[in-house]
Amino acid sequence: MIIIDSHLLNAVSAQAKVSPRRRQNFNFHKDYSDTLQRLLNAMEPLSYIQPHRHADPDKREVFFSLRGRIAVIEFDDLGNITGHTVLDPSDGNFGAEIPERTFHTIIPLDPETVAYEVKDGPYSPIDDKNFASWAPKEGSANATEYLKGILKKLGIRHD
Question: Which of 78, 81, 150, 159 gets the most CB atoms within 10 Å of its CB?
Fold first, then answer.
């Protein structure tokens, strides 16, 4: 049995705080060939995940907020926002499932945010994500401003 408790969330959050990417995964799947990928994703506010989709092979992805608030945003092929929600367990909004072939990103809004993610496997770094050409690349100078612009447009506050 794998126990997901505050000790595990605290440990993964501590790693995220010192990570250059401001996030840290903790995988439950034994290897990348597993047909069901399951992981914790500890994130600090405004950690940037470039909008992407899972196509060829098609994969669904589900996010549950275990701690903190997470903005989940969907886009069309041109980068227009088509849907969004803020996952917040304290408000009773726990999770969101992203269909295959849908551009999306998640934005952590609070310190020590932890998501539980589930995605179809297997994982292959070669074809797992199709990154949006209309969004900044991870690590680029304008990535944080891009995220702040999305949140401002949607009227979502962050810490």
Answer: 150
